[in-house]
Design goal:
Elements lengths: L2 H13 L25 E2 L7 E6 L5 E5 L2 E6 L5 E7 L4 E6 L4 E6 L3 E6 L15 E2 L2 E2 L3 E6 L5 E5 L9 H6 L5 E6 L7 E7 L2 E6 L5 E6 L4 E8 L2 E2 L3 E4 L4 E8 L5 E8 L2 H8 L1 H10 L26 E2 L2 E2 L9 E6 L5 E7 L8 E7 L2 E6 L4 E5 L6
Antiparallel strand pairs: 1-28, 2-3, 3-4, 4-5, 6-7, 7-8, 9-10, 11-12, 12-13, 13-14, 15-16, 16-17, 17-18, 17-19, 20-21, 21-24, 22-23, 24-25, 26-27, 27-28
Amino acid sequence: MGMFSHFLRDLEQIVFPDRDWHPIPAMDGALTPNDLLDACAPVGDPIPGVDDVVAGPDGALYASAGSEILRFSGEEFRERSVFATVDGVAGALAWHRDDRLLVCVAGHGLLPIPLKGARNGSRSQTPLTRAGDEDLECLTAVAVAADGTVFLTDGSSRNRPDDWARDLMEKNALGRLIVCRPALNGARVVQSHLAWPHGVALAADGRALWFSESWSHRLSRVAVDGDRLGRPEVVIGNMPGYPGRLSRAAAGGFWLASFAVRTHLIEFVLREDDFRTEMMRTIAPPLWIAPALNTTNDSQEPMQFGNIKALGIEKPWAPPRSYGLLVRIDGDGEPLESLHSRRGGVHHGITASCESAHGLVIVSKGSGRLLRRTTGGKA
């Protein structure tokens, strides 16, 4: 790209600031950075690959980690056991009304696993593998309505869940919103061309479905009538992080996980097509200038155009390689409170959360931990 072309592109962004690029909003007010995630108590030992967590009908916690679904029970969830093993990498989880745990498995679709002793344990365990003419290889979130209707987000038709950074660098919008019947049949696509949809949840009254799109940094909702959906409405159109999974908050609204935050360097790279293409061709993916779930302190990791240390101390306000962020929003999408783990913190890469009898439970995939925050905010 020549110098004059660069000038025209930059001039276009000044004159038309909303065209394909949006400035990163400041994190202030309810989003003011803090260290609340690092103050949360870890639940037991580290869990490599932990990705999602849900509270079960039996009062236990169920978490996906690699090919296993782990069950946590007892006082403060100190007892850990393997509930199930799947053929693939387990991701998003949700409980069906008939006590089947729905598990999104990379490359395999949606797998129902009955709870031992459940009243409908004889129900079909046939997985849902296709919607329309395409396989479901990149399911990122699942939600179940009161009538048993299942809603799913398929992040991309080109990449699987672990290749999320590649999907961002390719600037794809190949995701879909899918609905299927309670028996996991009749799946159909209701929204397509979504930019990595990564979270889906129903409002408390069941009349609206909320979903996030990570690469377009937005949160939308759509009216629901059974398995019929209305026209989507953007609730938050420009977020400082990459929004992920949603879970319902007991006090109203939702908890929204952001697995990374946007930086000016990454936004710049996304605009420089030639540089980005060469970077992806010649550099190993862990060293790309791209969001990350954690910081390895590898000497080859890209710096973020900011001094990282001062007087030997890693500065929490430095541009982050990775970050931890969980936000509670109300029924209109307004942020009410947030929990952070800043530069130099430990619990980055927040991918999920759920409320339980022992407080709010949070997944930090970056640190491989389940975290627990009791009511009132003290760990």
